[in-house]
Design brief:
There is one protein chain. By secondary structure, the protein is an all-alpha fold. The chain has a domain of 52 residues. It contains 3 helices and no strands. The chain is flat, with a radius of gyration of 23 Å.
Length: 106
C-alpha cells in the first residue's frame, strides 16, 4: 500500500476517533450506563474501501464535467453447499423472530 494512502487512512481513523470522543451525546449515554453500575466497552467496526482511479478520471474541483458512465464492478461468485452452521445464539435469535429452521441431524 502506498505510504500516502496509509497516512490518509490514519488521518481518517484519527478524525473518526476524535469525533466520537468529542460527542456529547455519546458521553451522556456512556455516563448513564456507568451510573447504572456498568462498565462500558465500546468497540466500533468500520469497513472502508478504496479504489484507485485512473489518471483520466481524477476529480478536478475547478472544472464542471459530465459524470462518466461507471463500469459495473465484477460480480462475485458464491458457491453454496446448502448447509449452514448455526450457533445456539443464532437459533434463539431466529426463534425470537418466529423463524422456523429445519433441524438436520443426519
Amino acid at each position: 500500500m502506498e505510504e500516502k494512502l496509509k497516512e490518509l487512512m490514519q488521518e481518517l481513523g484519527n478524525a473518526i476517533n476524535e469525533s466520537l470522543s468529542d460527542s456529547d451525546r455519546i458521553a451522556a449515554a456512556i455516563g448513564e450506563i456507568k451510573r447504572a453500575g456498568y462498565d462500558v466497552f465500546l468497540v466500533l467496526e468500520a469497513t472502508i474501501g478504496f479504489n484507485k482511479r485512473d489518471e483520466s478520471s481524477e476529480y478536478e474541483g475547478d472544472e464542471e464535467t459530465e459524470p462518466a458512465e461507471a463500469e459495473a464492478p465484477p460480480k462475485r461468485k458464491f458457491e453454496s453447499t446448502g448447509k449452514i452452521k448455526l450457533t445456539s445464539q443464532d437459533q434463539k435469535f431466529l426463534k425470537a423472530l418466529k423463524i422456523a429452521i429445519e433441524d438436520d441431524k443426519s
